[in-house]
Amino acid sequence: MSATRFSESVSGSIRDGVLVVIIANAPVNATSAHVRQGLVKALDHASAVGTVIGVVITGAGRTFVGGADIREFGKPPVEPTLPEVMQRIENCSKPVVASVNGAALGGGCEIALACHGRVAGEAASFGLPEVKLGIVPGAGGTQRLPRLIGTVAAIDLIGSGRTVRPDEAIKLGLVDGVAADHLAAAVGLVHQLAGQSQRRTGLLDVPIAELAAVEAASKKVLSRSRGQSAPAEAVRLVRLASERTFRDGLAEERATFLRLRDSNEAAALRHVFFAERQAGKVDKLEGIAPRRIETVGIVGTGLMGAGIAVAALTAGYRVVGIEQTEDAATKGRERIAGILDKAVQSGRLAATVRDGCLARLAVAANIGELAAADFVIEAVFDDLAVKTELFQRLDGIVRPDAILATNTSYLNPDEIAAATAHPGRVVGLHFFSPANIMRLVEVVDCKATAPDVLASALAFARKLGKLPVVSGVTEGFIGNRIFSAYRREAEFMVEDGAAPEEVDAALEAYGFPMGIFTVYDMAGLEIAWARRKRQAATRDPNARYVEIADKLCEAGRFGRKTGKGWYDYASGEKAVDPEVTALIAAARAAKDISPRRFTVDEIVDRLLRAMADEGAALLTEGIAARSSDIDLVMINGYGFPAHKGGPMFAAETHKDITP
Ligand code: 3H9
């Protein structure tokens, strides 16, 4: 039988008496209005035609259904709503089975939950990631999932938003079967279910769970969601499933979904979602193919180099690490193997994958080994002479088409490139430490970087599972430029009367995992001190300069590792140190500053303003391509809370900021 069209994105055809409905709404089969309308028409058709014994729902392409259409949020609702579609599926008198070919996320997972049976293909995945968008599932997910897999597992899945693969889905009871030919298996399941009374998920009792286990699962979610409302609401709704009727639970879920959907938190997280998909897109690279990269050379296998090596190895590359001596090479290899072992111990990496990584790793003391590399990253001491000399040597070793990347954080990569024979093949790759964990990579488009070299660096970073953001050349690139402005403003406030612990508390209440002075102590104060000393001669003598950090360094207070910095760590815990308070008071007195009080709001406003102003300057200078890139850098590299959308987004929406 030929295909019947139910809407522009939903069609169906008969297979063994079963109506197989395909949702084809590229790119991710989101449940746009025409998908919802098409599904209802398909169900009507199946119910009306006597020869149809049941329905299978599947997705076209790689995705089953990626969820509600996020772009529709905020627009007037169009009937039927997704919860209505779910009711129609669940109440259908003929069996409806989901044949899950790919990602079933959010509303997509909810469609599967409303069906009478679920079969997963090998590429299927399931998740209710709504909390990552600042919302809760709004089409029955919080009420149906605990009925299928129990309260504890549902709290974990919905509260974290994590995705599960078919093997876990079957263990949880989320699916009835996994099959390579999921469509044939789903049609078979419809035949089995036909003529019986259907297993309607909403009518199941929630399995009884131990209160202690429910409490523990709830606590785990809440401990990770500081400052956000959606995860706590998700936990509340899942728990409600065993306390109220299905109908009441659905009504409460819907009301919560609508309230959160219109919140600032959800708007911020939607902004981040689309920002991530925009990042790394560069107009001038349209149609330019990246170079082939198989072997990655890494010069320097210290903390940074080893982290980059692990990221490259786990992404499947062959890695050649280079050290200056045999002894250092042995230690480098051990460092890399140690990180991989730790990942195996914590369950993040399978032992077989680690063994594969080690088989693709060589660490040598002979730089000539880099002749085989397609892409070389230097992760040596951040000194211009050291890096320039290294790149000049590499000119005589690597192939002419090999790419050279510098992992500098503050030096000018244009100067490094200019000293080489082929500046076009030089690009900046600014990783964040630990490089195997941190997602952000600033890809620095230098003055002479060839377009296909930039495209290759972006493709490489993506293959590493990183979030690449393109930056032009400037002191500290996007992130450190903004961080410097933010730090400067924090120090101005301390000099004017705020205590460092007040600034930190205000930032932590706003959602940063750590305040700026605590971060400073963690990272160590001496590197920035050395830089300030280098820059002292060229500093604008009329610009305000706060000496407090210099004075701390002069007193040997380099941060946590020396037991003292902005705080004291003698007890093992961070504590306010009267010596620092006195040192700050003396610095104020030396400038005749009479300290004044700062409110929490004023502290946050001033810091947001400082970051946003510096961000605006980066846009004007053409260093950042779009303000959402700046937001991503600060969220992924500097702890800015994602649910506030980043400094540029927050400055636009933060009401207290005076224009
Ligand atoms: C929800 O379902 C609420 C319900 O509970 C209740 C409702 C009542 N909508 O990521 P990609 C776009 S909330 C609109 O690069 P991949 C994306 O912007 C939703 N657009 O592909 C991009 O566009 P462009 C819960 C969407 O293959 C393009 O698709 N669901 C949506 O790497 C390709 O995206 C989620 O949170 C959407 N839902 O990964 C899932 N999703 O080309 C969110 C994507 O213009 N989505 N786009 O830049 C994902 O996690 C991934 O997109 C997915 C595919 C894994 C599906």
Automatic annotation (TrEMBL):
Pfam families: 3HCDH, 3HCDH_N, ECH_1. This is 3-hydroxyacyl-CoA dehydrogenase. Keywords: Fatty acid metabolism, Isomerase, Lipid degradation, Lipid metabolism, Lyase, Multifunctional enzyme, NAD, Oxidoreductase, Peroxisome, Plasmid. It catalyses: a (3S)-3-hydroxyacyl-CoA + NAD(+) = a 3-oxoacyl-CoA + NADH + H(+). Pathway: Lipid metabolism; fatty acid beta-oxidation. SUPFAM superfamilies: 6-phosphogluconate dehydrogenase C-terminal domain-like, ClpP/crotonase, NAD(P)-binding Rossmann-fold domains. Its main location: other. It comes from Aminobacter aminovorans. One of its GO terms (molecular function) is enoyl-CoA hydratase activity. The keyword Transferase does not apply. It is found in: Peroxisome. One of its GO terms (biological process) is fatty acid metabolic process. Signal peptide: none annotated. Its EC number is 1.1.1.35. Residues 295-471 form the 3-hydroxyacyl-CoA dehydrogenase NAD binding domain. Residues 476-569 form the 3-hydroxyacyl-CoA dehydrogenase C-terminal domain. It is an enzyme of class 1 (oxidoreductase). InterPro entries: 3-OHacyl-CoA_DH_NAD-bd (IPR006176), 3HC_DH_C (IPR006108), 6-PGluconate_DH-like_C_sf (IPR008927), ClpP/crotonase-like_dom_sf (IPR029045), Enoyl-CoA_hydra/iso (IPR001753), NAD(P)-bd_dom_sf (IPR036291).
